[in-house]
């Protein structure tokens, strides 16, 4: 009999998306070396350990790098890399301000943009939750 | 045993370049370049027994190239890590030749992306954790790196523009360069913004083009008609694929590939007569000059300013005009090798670097992802 491996469990990306749909941004913490991991995986790329635990991010971060992407029509839009305070980095954008005004080093806070494809983690300027 | 001096590039050529017109395929350009490189080497197609290629058009590049050319290799390597692949092939070919897996290696590439639609042809899959934000691949990724370099080191848009201007000054001396009109720092700053801080003149060209390089053993190379250009050293490194996984956007894996190449070659940056650095974007040249040891980290902006990498400057960089002004057919790494070999042979006329004996070739692939450094030398460097 062929069929789905009963030991396969839930894929890392699935766990991530399930949490995101419930309104929280999660990441993995390596029990072996303490590294914070993003994107979700089955092993720690730093030390190789498979002993990873899911944690919820505070959503507080700092803009590590930024660009404004120009298009033929309409205003440019922003793309950033954000360093979350737990020690992982992700691509995102900063909403609520002109794309060119986003600065490296700015403190930002997580928001979820509810799109047809599911919630997308974005950020707004400030650290009101601090 | 080190591979230093064990293999040599004995033939190089470009295909037709620029905009070849509709109907030509990437394999047609590979055919042109291969015939010209074989003629340059004084070898026949039947001499080729090792085949190296990478492509955004063909899922199994060496199969497609071998079939089109009628080459049945006994050693085949389609290592694919972006534009640096062909510099990597140089190292792999030297190792294969040294191990007697093949004797005459053909490294080749072609693209008709300009005639085919004028946009970069890429087989790059979207990163699901980046795709929702619509970064423009690959320029936005390099723009992010530029923004970080500016933040940490005070690098300016004017300094980045100096890279584009220097490339253009070299291109003016190269009849095969795609863009040879005057270009000033002010022109670059005033050009259309694509992904800040990079404007269209901070970005490489989108052209058709291809190339071929023939590599063989040092022994056989000495029997051929052109002076051999020896592979003195080479090194590879990669740390990430997606820009969000790059540990420090101001430090590339060239900081590892370069010491590997220098170590094998037994030379340092101070002995390099010309540097061919993969300039997909102006920030690349700044980063690589730093990471390859030509200046300290953070000093790349000053290093490129005031015409110091232009013709007649302190260091000859991208003497063909580079990906910025000469040609950029999607993946440009092979054309770095072509120019370096011609410079070391003394064939470059108006843009010839005097007393050029050691050339550094540095390939970049993906989004500052793969870094491959090679050191090439003339007979006198052995």
What does this molecule look like?
The complex is a heterodimer of chains A (130) and B (382). Chain A is 8% helix and 41% strand. Chain A folds into two domains: 1-56, no CATH class; 58-130, OB fold (Dihydrolipoamide Acetyltransferase, E2P), CATH 2.40.50. In chain A, strands 6-5-4-8-9-7 form a six-stranded mixed sheet, with no helix packed on it. Chain A has one helix at 12-21; strands at residues 26-30, 36-37, 52-56, 60-69, 77-84, 89-92, 94-95, 107-115, 118-125. The longest helix of chain A is centred in the first third of the chain and has 10 residues, at 12-21. Chain A is globular and about 50 Å long. Chain B starts with 6 loop residues before the first strand and ends in a 5-residue tail after the last strand. The mean pLDDT of chain B is 97. Chain B has 382 residues and is an alpha/beta fold. The longest helix of chain B is centred in the N-terminal third of the chain and has 16 residues, at 26-41. Chain B has helices at 26-41, 61-69, 85-98, 139-153, 157-171, 185-190, 218-221, 254-265, 282-291, 300-303, 322-325, 333-345; strands at 7-14, 50-53, 75-77, 104-111, 193-195, 198-199, 209-217, 229-238, 274-277, 316-317, 358-365, 370-377. Chain B is 32% helix and 18% strand. Chain B has a single domain, classed as Peroxisomal Thiolase, Chain A, domain 1. The A-B interface holds A 13, 38-39, 64-70, 76-77, 79-81, 89-93, 100, 104-105, 115, 117, 120 and B 128-130, 132-136, 140, 143-145, 147-148, 150-151, 192-198, 242-244, 249.
């Amino acid at each position: 009999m062929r069929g789905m491996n009963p030991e396969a469990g839930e894929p890392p990306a699935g766990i991530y998306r399930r949490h995101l749909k419930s309104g929280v941004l999660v990441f993995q913490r390596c029990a072996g070396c303490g590294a914070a991991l993003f994107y979700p995986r089955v092993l720690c790329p730093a030390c190789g350990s498979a002993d990873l635990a899911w944690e919820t991010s505070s959503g507080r971060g700092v803009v590590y790098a930024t660009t404004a992407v120009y298009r033929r029509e309409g205003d440019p839009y922003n793309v950033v890399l954000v360093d979350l305070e737990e020690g992982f980095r992700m691509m995102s954008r900063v909403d609520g301000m002109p794309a060119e005004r986003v600065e490296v080093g700015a403190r930002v806070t997580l928001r979820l943009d509810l799109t047809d494809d599911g919630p997308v983690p974005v950020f707004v300027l400030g650290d009101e939750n601090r | 045993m080190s591979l230093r001096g064990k293999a040599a590039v004995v033939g190089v050529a470009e295909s037709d370049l620029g905009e070849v017109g509709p109907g030509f395929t990437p394999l047609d350009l590979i055919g042109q370049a291969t015939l010209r490189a074989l003629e340059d080497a004084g070898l026949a197609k039947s001499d080729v027994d090792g085949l190296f290629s990478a492509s955004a058009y063909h899922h199994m590049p060496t199969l497609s190239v071998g079939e089109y050319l009628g080459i049945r290799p006994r050693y085949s390597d389609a290592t694919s890590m972006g534009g640096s692949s062909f510099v990597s092939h140089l190292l792999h070919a030297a190792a294969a030749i040294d191990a007697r897996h093949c004797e005459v290696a053909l490294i080749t590439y072609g693209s008709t992306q300009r005639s085919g639609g004028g946009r970069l042809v890429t087989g790059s899959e979207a990163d699901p954790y980046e795709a929702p934000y619509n970064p423009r691949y690959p320029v936005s990724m390099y723009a992010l790196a530029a923004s970080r370099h500016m933040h940490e080191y005070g690098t300016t848009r004017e300094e980045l523009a100096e890279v584009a201007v220097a490339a253009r000054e070299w291109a003016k001396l190269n009849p095969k360069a795609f863009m040879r009109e005057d270009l000033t720092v002010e022109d670059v700053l005033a050009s259309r913004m694509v992904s800040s801080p990079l404007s269209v003149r901070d970005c490489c060209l989108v052209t058709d083009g291809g190339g071929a390089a023939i590599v063989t053993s040092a022994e056989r190379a000495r029997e051929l008609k052109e002076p051999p250009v020896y592979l003195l050293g080479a090194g590879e490194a990669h740390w990430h694929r997606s820009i969000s996984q790059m540990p420090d956007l101001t430090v590339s894996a060239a900081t590892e590939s370069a010491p590997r190449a220098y170590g094998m070659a037994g030379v340092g940056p101070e002995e390099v007569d010309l540097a061919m650095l993969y300039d997909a974007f102006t920030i690349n040249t700044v980063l690589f000059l730093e990471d390859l040891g030509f200046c300290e980290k953070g000093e790349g902006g000053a290093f490129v300013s005031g015409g110091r990498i232009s013709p007649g400057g302190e260091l000859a960089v991208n003497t063909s005009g580079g990906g910025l002004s000469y040609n950029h057919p999607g993946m440009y790494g092979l054309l770095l090798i072509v120019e370096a070999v011609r410079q070391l042979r003394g064939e470059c006329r108006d843009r010839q670097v005097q007393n050029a004996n050691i050339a550094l070739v540095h390939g970049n692939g993906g989004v500052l992802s793969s870094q491959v450094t090679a050191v090439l030398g003339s007979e006198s460097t052995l």
